[in-house]
Amino acid sequence: MQLPGTTLLVIDDDSVTRQQIATFLEQSGFDVLQASQALQGLELFSRHRPELVLCDLHIADMSGVELIRQITEGAPDTPVIVVSAAGVMADVVEALRVGASDYLIKPLVDLAVLEHAVRRSLDRSRLRVENQRIRERLERANRELENHLKELKDDQAAGRQVQLNMLPASPWVSDSYRLEHRIIPSLYLSGDFVDYFRVSDTQLAFYLADVSGHGASSAFVTVLLKFMTTRLLYEQRKQDVAGPVAFKPSDVLGHINRSLISCKLGKHVTMLGGVIDETTQTLTYSIGGHLPLPVLYTDGEARYLQGKGKPVGLFDDAEYENVEIKLPECFSLTLCSDGVLDCIEGATLREKEARLPDMIQETGGDMRGLMGRLGLDSSQTMPDDISILVLSRNPR
Fold this sequence. Notes:
Blueprint: E1 7-11, H1 15-27, E2 31-35, H2 38-48, E3 52-55, E4 58-59, E5 62-63, H3 64-74, E6 80-85, H4 89-97, E7 102-106, H5 111-166, E8 172-174, E9 177-184, E10 192-200, E11 203-211, H6 215-239, H7 249-263, E12 269-277, E13 282-288, E14 295-298, E15 301-304, E16 323-326, E17 331-336, H8 349-362, H9 367-374, E18 386-393
Parallel strand pairs: 1-2, 1-3, 3-6, 6-7
Antiparallel strand pairs: 4-5, 8-9, 9-18, 10-11, 11-12, 12-13, 13-16, 14-15, 14-17, 17-18
Helix pairs in contact: 5-6, 6-7
């Protein structure tokens, strides 16, 4: 069915043929303009911009090929159908080469063939125009997407730099203790975070946290963790003017738990943290739903430390316990996020967890050795965030 208002232009110096074509097409629902000369046809075309042109190849005032060329150069999406008497094939080829969409031979015995050719050319032209519009829309969308991706990449780069600036130096030596860490994000930003710092002249604190999820939202929570622990330490130091600070790991986890719940971010954290008292050479630590548990390596043997607790930021009634152990003269303590387990062979999570102390024992509790044993490289992209923190004293 023809769209209303479709205008055609017939250019032919044969008035009988021209009128025959025009009358038939008007009866078929088209608006038809007529021109007996090429220049008149070009003027009508410029003024009315018809959707299709039918023309003869042999017109007194201009070559039909030149007429087609001028039309298609000015309006390449407008189809031109040649309706001409039988001639040499070279004329037909040249007409098609310069832009004609179809070629019909006079006399037109069956005008239904003409109507079919017109509708087919119009359909093809409209399809080309629509495809072009779609391509243009896709190109615009792609440009917008590229701009958005660039903005996102710039934002992520800035966020990544913020995270890197928040991380402690690695390695970091304080008196007889040495701490170092590695974080390999699954995305540009990491939901894993580690920190260690002096609490007082005789106290050293550390923690490893694994925020649920990945990407920017999880990375944002690591910023909150840094802020909350720093603020809590500041408040505690104001109360204790001199000497050791009552910076208990269970209190830190409880404070973060309440803060995350009140923020309503929909994020929770598994974490473990500890405080070393260098006067008594004891470690007090607390577990917040974190697996694997910390691994202590000493005297050539590695074993998991014990402890339990609920994830941080999920339960209002969560309580966290402190576990205290005497530290050996020579040891290393390895803390890992659960992403490390993805790098260990094993059919089940229990099997992988059982292998971790063996690997730490095989590498002597050394960070570089463990990274190599796990097949990890800081430049890798992993399916999950991976973080490792190793705390040691007089390692052998």
